[in-house]
Amino acid sequence: MIPLLSALTPLIGSVLDRVLPDQVERDKVKVELETALLSHAAEIEKAAASVVIAEAKGESWLQRNWRPMLMVLFGYIVAHNYVIAPVFGVASAVMPDHLWELLKIGVGGYIVSRGAEKGISLWKK
Question: What digits encode the pLDDT tens for the residues 66-104?
């Protein structure tokens, strides 16, 4: 969940910078929004985990596997850039900043959902 909050905070700040010209008012609203996000972080995390669990239990092969396949692709890109390219002297893949943020959110969501799924299965036993 923290990666999601970390990704949302700059977005909120940039929108507020454009909408609210008064620095004091803008800071006050930022604090209120961040507090609201943090206070509802557990609910947001549960909702995100339930989406991933529903996908994992889906009937379609693609529905169940698109997220793990994407994480494997990201893992390959990271391995290519930091292991394969330097060792073999090949060009590294250019990955824009917003894709790195997506990777952090995706990995965080995947870890949370797998933890929740395993926790639920242990609880049922």
Answer: 878 888 888 898 899 999 999 999 998 888 888 888 777
Mean pLDDT value of segment 15-43: 83
Give the tokens for residue 108: 């965080």
3-state secondary structure (DSSP) of residue 91: coil
- Supply the pTM of this predicted model: 0.47
Mean pLDDT across the chain, nearest whole number?
Answer: 79
Average pLDDT of 5-24?
A: 79
Do residues 31 and 9 lie in contact, with contact meaning Cβ atoms separated by under 8 Å?
no
Helix %, strand %, coil % of the chain (to 5): 85, 0, 15
How many whole angstroms separate alpha carbon 123 and alpha carbon 125? 5
Q: How far apart are CA 119 and CA 49, in angstroms?
A: 12
- Residue among 40, 33, 35, 37 nearest 14 (CA): 33
What is the b/e burial string over 33-63, where b = at least 16 CB atoms within 10 angstroms of the residue's CB? beeebeeeeeeebeebbeebeebeeeeeeee
